[in-house]
Amino acid sequence: MSLRNPPSFQHLAIESLLSNQALAIAALEDLPLLLFPSLFVEVYARAHTEVLKALVQAWPFHCLPLGDLEESPDLETFKAVLDGLNLLLAKKECPSRWKLQVLSLRKEHPNIWTWGYPPMARISSPDILTDKPTESHCSGMTKEQPLMITMDLTIKDGTQDALQAHLLHWARERRERVQLCSRKLQIWSDSISEIQKALHVVRLDSIQELVVSEFWNRETMKIFAPYLSQMKNLHLLKLSKMRADFYTASQKNSWYSWKIGAHLGQLQHLRELHVHEVLFLYGKLPAILRSLRPLKALSLSACALQDDDLRCLSQAPCTRQLQHLQLTSLFMDNSSPESLRDLLEHVASTLETLALEDCAFTDAHLSAILPGLSQCSQLRVFSVYGNHISMAALYNLLSLTARLGHLSRGLYPAPLESYRPQEWGLGNIDPERLALVLANLGQVLRDLGPTQRVQICTDFCHHQNKCQFYSLGPDGSWVLTEEGLPSLSALSV
Predict the structure, then answer these.
(1) Over the stretch 101-154, which tens digit does the pLDDT of each residue have?
(2) Superkingdom of the source (predicted)?
(3) Angle, nearest 10°, between helix axes 9-18 and 36-46?
(4) Residues whose CB falls within 8 Å of the CB of residue 365, separated by 6 or more in sequence, listed in order
(5) CATH topology of domain 347-488
């Protein structure tokens, strides 16, 4: 006799129903709500396309979370789902149980298919739109309440993802009755025609995160900028690897910053701005920052900046409530540190994450900002690796951060005494010198008794996205690990 658990009555009922597809389709109108999620998973796994089409039409809940299935839909299965929606959209009268309002292709509800009926019934329209659909006597898709499809989209060069390409084409042909919403949109393409094709389909005020990289020029910006100002619910913007027209006058290149600033100023909900390797900012950062609402997070990396740009950081109203600030590879060795000190003083009551990484700081720079840093009472994470400071400066820094009660993690550079004489740089660590430095640091930390996790960076590479850290273990010994370069989001967790 088998010791395995016998199949449940529900499983047997589904098996019996699927043994005859015509019977299964006919039975959907009277199928108990409890069985719909389990039946859908089984039909989906077996690729019974005709039953799948009928299930979509009869789906009794507001949201069909297709993206939360264990396996992502292949193109043929996805086409069957869309065929079911086509039949649903073509009906002139509302079926008695027609409730489907949202087809979700995002992973928003982990494990919901295993939880069954009650969680399915509780899912409603995602809260991503400025204008809510109005109620109507029919709970289905009317002109006032179109079918909403949610999916994170990526526009890139080369062959597009087949499922995404098919969805964009399908939604474009049904624009009157279908709204395609994308909480996160990534653009990795230099084809403005492909970008426009996608943006004409997507409901722009559904976009909360926008990542744009590697395609900007003056003509692209001119065409794209009006779309940007329509993304009314944008919370996070990442701009990276954008170059100016090097062979034109600097005043012409200032047009980039002016154009971005003019449109970003219309975004009431923008709270995070991340800018990486954007080369048209030189002296033009104020044109962007002066128009922004107060930011929660700001990161600038590998950008050419002038003193006026850094001074603007401390003066712009949008930086006065920062919680997370990251400045990386800005080469501030010839810049005045007073602006940064002033900024730290302004945000001392709100700042939780501060990263000043690979900025060519010297002992003098560090000494100048210590008074501002000492006031950052809410600081939880502090990163200053990649800078040229001495053991004495590092000791002063550790003495200060040990008094910051909320600080839980600190990333510091190996001091100059760790390197071969006159050979500061990656790969030039002297093992014997480093061993002596770490021994001294271990004693310093035992004397200070900080609550933070202290990590000493001896090597980092932005191109390979890796860092080598020495971390002090519970037994007082130093452990070497290789980790990915910490981004602002990783630091602020």
Answers:
(1) 899 999 888 889 988 788 888 887 666 655 444 444 344 444 457 899 999 999
(2) Eukaryota
(3) 50
(4) 332, 333, 337, 387
(5) 3.80.10
